Amino acid sequence: MIIIRRFWTGNIASAEGALRAGCNFYAGYPITPSSDLMEYMARELPKRGGVFIQGEDEIASINMLIGASIAGAKAMTATSGPGFSLMQEGIGLAVMLEAPLVIVDVMRLGPATGQATKSGQGDLMQSRWGRHGDQVLVVYAPSSVKEAFLLTIKAFNTAESLRTPVVVLLDELIGHLWEVIDVPEDIEVVERVWSSEPGAFFDSEVPENPPPMPKLGVGLNVLYTGSTHDGYGFRKTQDPDAHNKLVRRIHRKIYGNLDRIFIYDYHGEDAPDILFITFGSVSRPTTEAVDILNSDGYRVGILKLMTLWPIDYTVLKSFVDKSQIVIVPEMNLGQLIHDVKMVGGDKVYRFNKIGGGIPIYSSELVGYVKEVYK
């Protein structure tokens, strides 16, 4: 295996991951703290034969991605909380059209303008549920610069293989963190399945397998609509059976592939007395706290979730059931904890910190464990 060493930020690593995955179209609008990712793509993408467009706003940008995706491009944008909010209707349209694309959300502190240069983890629920209607998409969350690179590639691979939008949730601390990483050369890149023959491009006999994308420019007549439609794209806005079939199939192609979508990492003692469950930048001080506590005679572990949606609750419960106490540290007022409480109940504790982008420190978690677990 050939390894190349690089000194990157999380934002640069995400951009490089997109380029490695074959991204050839970027449309976006600058917004702190994702602007340097966009600037990097503006410089590098045209060098590699791609197209870069600065949209007039985030609404225009997400809709440009949809058009580019349908036309055959591997499309990407990056934004932060307020811009992500503006994109939600377009993301919902991409779900309905089954247009593969990738959105990187470099989280900052809200609500509203909030503290634009400071880090937070308040966009988890927005990434899952920001759109109206019954829908599901995939959300990945890196906790290091290398993971920003690899999970952006995985986001493109997932988008292309399942015909779905995919969100990469960075937080500002990871987006602007500089790290030396080893970048492997032999990385799998998935290409979408195309069809040049007439067919039902919005239906599949096996719900877990999305239909192929129709190739443009070969004489196919394809209808794309955000309204309820049948397998050929014809609008069926008064047909309950058509809506039921369509939405359940779009839902099933995600959940039917949960085993390869849901990824995580575990570190610490087997069957620990105390289990931390984390995502993003908070995983870093938590891992340090786990090592400190284990050296002090505690039995502690950390389950780091790299997929935040959909969650495999069977896997999550298997870790929670082995532990006496579960602690969910987050740089928000509590979002991931709702999933953990669903499987862990009263033995699940929260540790929350917001404001000023001040990270959660390992010393705080060590002190909290020694206070709670007596």
Notes on the structure:
The protein is α/β, with parallel strands linked by helices. The longest helix is centred in the middle third of the chain and has 18 residues, at 145-162. It folds into 2 domains: 3-184, Rossmann fold (3-Layer(aba) Sandwich); 263-372, Rossmann fold (3-Layer(aba) Sandwich). The strands form 4 sheets. Strands 2, 3, 4, 5, 6, 7, 8 and 15 form an 8-stranded mixed beta sheet that branches. Strands 12-14-13-16-17 form a 5-stranded mixed beta sheet, with helices on both faces. It has a two-stranded antiparallel sheet with strand order 1-9. The protein is globular and about 70 Å long. The protein has 13 helices and 17 strands.
Short synopsis of the structure:
The protein is α/β, with parallel strands linked by helices. Helices cover 38% and strands 23% of the residues.
In the predicted model, the low-confidence regions spanning at least 5 consecutive residues are: none
Q: Provide the CATH topology of the largest domain.
A: Rossmann fold
Class based on secondary structure composition and strand pairing: alpha/beta
**Main sheet, how many strands, which sense, barrel?**
8 strands, mixed
CATH superfamily of the largest domain: Thiamin diphosphate (ThDP)-binding fold, Pyr/PP domains
The total strand number stands at 17
Distance, first to last CA? 48 Å
In the CATH classification, which architecture of the largest domain applies? 3-Layer(aba) Sandwich
Q: What proportion strand?
A: 15-25%
Radius of gyration (CA) equals 21 Å
